[in-house]
Amino acid sequence: MTEQHRDAELSRRTLLRGAAAAGIAGMAGTAVNSATASAATGAGRRVAVLGSGIGGLTAAQELAERGFSVTVYERKALGGKSRTIPVPGSASGGRLPLPGEHGARGFTSFYQHIHDSMRRIPVSGKQNGVYDNLIPFSFGDVRYARANGRADGNPLLFGFYFDPREVLTPEGLRSILIEGILKQHEVSLPDAEYLVERFLVFFTSSEQRRFGQWENTSWWDFVGARSRSAEYQNLAATGLTRALVAAKERVASTRTIGNMAEQFLLAVLREVGGGPKVYEVLNGPTNEAWLDPWVAHLRGLGVRFRVGDTVEGLTFEGGRITGARARSANGTHTIEADWFVCAVPTDRARGLWSPQIRGAAPGLANMDRLTMDWMNGIQFFVDKDTPLGNGFNIYLDAPWRLTSYTQDSFWRTDYRHKYGDGSSVNGLTIDIADWDTPGILFGKPAKRCSREQIYHEVWAQLQAALNDRGAEQLPGGIVRAWQLDPAISWSAAAGQNTNDERLLVNGIGSWRNRPSADTGIPNLFLAADYVRTDFDLATMEGANEAARHAVNALLEEAGSAAERVPVFTRYQPPEFDGLKKIDAQRHRAGQPNLFDHPRP
């Protein structure tokens, strides 16, 4: 067993012991009720939550429900990268501003922690709270919009009947995957067979091999993309990383991408078997449909918010955090609390670790080795309906690796009468996943394009995919307003952009450099997407899980009798347990996986 796997297993067992002590079976449970909260021995303790992204808001909710006095400090706006960003000056006639977003925001049916939190955010008339604001849609509704005359396709569409119970065998999985790939993609049979073999290798790999071998292998190398066709690279490397999980194929850990690919496939099989649809999108702007009700609920629980406070450092004395130095419009001040939960992003968090803190918690210094990259959004607000399929498109041939969703495909609102000046009937939200590859219009990467150039370049790449086969799905002259994520800042003097809100990349070997929620400093805990979690991807789900680990560690340190926060694990099909046991033995013996054999 590798060091990384030992750490993960130790963390898991510690949490299981804590859950068992609290009477929670299988790390699942229900929301703590008001009686439990009032009885918590931690009542009256002050907690400073630094950052109001998904991790910070989750920690605030769980702690407030358990009787803690919580104040959330945020430098920009509540919600972090998940928030709605209104377009300045766009509203008139009593309407709301046009609703910009950080990017195309999607959820999946295999999210568990986010769903649990959403069900506990009350909304009038909604039995399941904010969760009922999610609109499910099928994996089959996702479209690969291809350029250069290629036929559009679907990431994985099964065009024939099969019994999902028979798929979870090596032969059954091989058959269904090859069929699905060949039906939808211009990939040769040998390439399809090879890709499916790689899936079989991963799905039957033990946890020991996943941590010991695949954590240290890039997805690009794992699927053998270097020696195969461009179409294979688009499907197997790019399509399963940048398009689906916002990662980079040449640097992403195979363990991380493989885990996500496994969950996506299982979700598709559940949907085909009559289960829930794979994808979900909110039925309105993120603030309206989720964050505003959440903040209102937290205020009702007694949580206080200080927006405009930028935390610049932590004071460390006597082995504990004694305060946080913060700057606001009124100058600098000290945040005092008994407990500190750090939920700021990776780059800002590691700037808080003084030499003294790094000496007391050596694992925090490893965060310096973590990689961050860019994935930011742009919105187009248009005055004509755009027939872009069922709303969610992936542009495999776009140099900037774009994905988009059409807002009115999911939002249940009268767009023209609610937002802007009444001229926009719809909004297109686009993620830009590649900021380093030259575009088709100006021949420059997005990082070196002005905001106006980014607008024109993205529009050109969308049209190249949507208008290339005769039908004009995206006509010119329909954009009434647009907004690039304001975190992107252009410097004409430097000829390049900076990004104030970058994204963690789960790179090769990054697990060993990521901290646990419990730092080792008795009153400092971490609740952000860089924390080691079972979900293990820089997402809203990962941040929510990290916050739960942080709260449970704080409860343990505080000696609280409050019910522990439920923490869930990825589903792993028992059908492969036997093969995984064999693989664990082979890994210990230095042998490859049973299905991992050389191919020409």
What does this structure look like?
The protein is built from 19 helices and 23 strands. By secondary structure, it is an alpha+beta fold. The protein has three domains: 3-76 and 308-370 and 520-558, FAD/NAD(P)-binding domain (3-Layer(bba) Sandwich), CATH 3.50.50; 82-138 and 280-284 and 375-499; 155-276, no CATH class. The chain is globular, with a radius of gyration of 24 Å. Residues 1-44 have low confidence and may be disordered.
Q: Over the alpha carbons, how many angstroms does the gyration radius reach?
A: 24 Å
> Class by helix and strand content?
alpha+beta
Rounded mean pLDDT is: 87
Total domain units: 3
* Largest sheet geometry: 6 strands, mixed
Q: What is the percent of helical residues?
A: 25-40%
Total E-strand runs: 23
Task: Tell me the overall shape.
Answer: globular
Low-confidence stretches: 1-44
